[in-house]
Amino acid sequence: MNITERISEYLKTAKDSTIYYTVAEYNRLLESQLNLKREGHWSTWRKLYKDIGIYASSICEERGIPVDDIQNKEFGRINKYQERILAEVIFGKSFREFFPNYSEYLNNQFPISPRIRGLQ
Questions:
Q1: Which of 44, 84, 106, 115 could form a disulfide with 40 if both were Cys (CB 3.0 to 4.6 A apart)?
Q2: What's CA 17's distance to the chain center, in Å?
Q3: Dist CA 57 CA 64 (whole Å)
Q4: DSSP code, position 81
Q5: Is the entire prediction scored with pTM above 0.85?
Q6: 107 contacts 42 by C-beta, under 8 angstroms
Q7: What are the helix (H) ranges across 15-102?
Q8: How far, in Å, CA of 10 to CA of 46, rounded?
Q9: pLDDT digits (tens, 9 = 90+) for 54-110
Q10: Strand ranges across the sheet with 76-82
Q11: Sequence spans of domains, the chain
Q12: Looking at residue 116, what is its pLDDT?
């Protein structure tokens, strides 16, 4: 099964999931379930995680979806989002349009998926 097929299979369940993850936890989930590995320096990922969180927070606020949080030694309190929201942000095209500097990297790492609920 190629990466696009694995992503499509994963999204069939993720699109309805209300399990909460931090952005970093979600990345680890994708690495294990889809056999993906991050590329690049940790500082690039740190900025990307922050921007994914900002975008996920705005979606949750707009749709009235609760955001959870946990204590983190390095950052203080960090947010947790429903899996379906994180899947929408990572695999949808609206985040790539909002943060065009990540588009090329994300297009290589996570191809835009077939439409799932909420993807623009």
A1: 44
A2: 13
A3: 10
A4: E
A5: no
A6: no
A7: 23-34, 42-63, 83-91, 93-98
A8: 24
A9: 999 999 999 999 999 999 888 889 999 999 999 888 887 766 676 666 666 666 666
A10: 20-21, 76-82, 68-72
A11: 3-108
A12: 40
Task: Place 1 in a pLDDT band, splitting at 50, 70 and 90.
Answer: confident
Using CA atoms, how far apart are residues 65 and 102, in angstroms rounded to an integer? 25
Quick one: tokens of 52?
A: 């994914």
Hunting for tokens 């990922």 — which residue is that? Answer: 45
Mean pLDDT of 1-21: 84
In whole angstroms, what separates CA 27 from the centre of its chain? 7
CA–CA gap between residue 99 and residue 102 (Å, rounded): 6
Tell me which residue has tokens 């030694």. Answer: 73
In angstroms, the Cα distances linking 95 to 32, 56, 102 are 23, 9, 9
* Residue whose entry in the numeric block shows the structure tokens 């309190």: 77
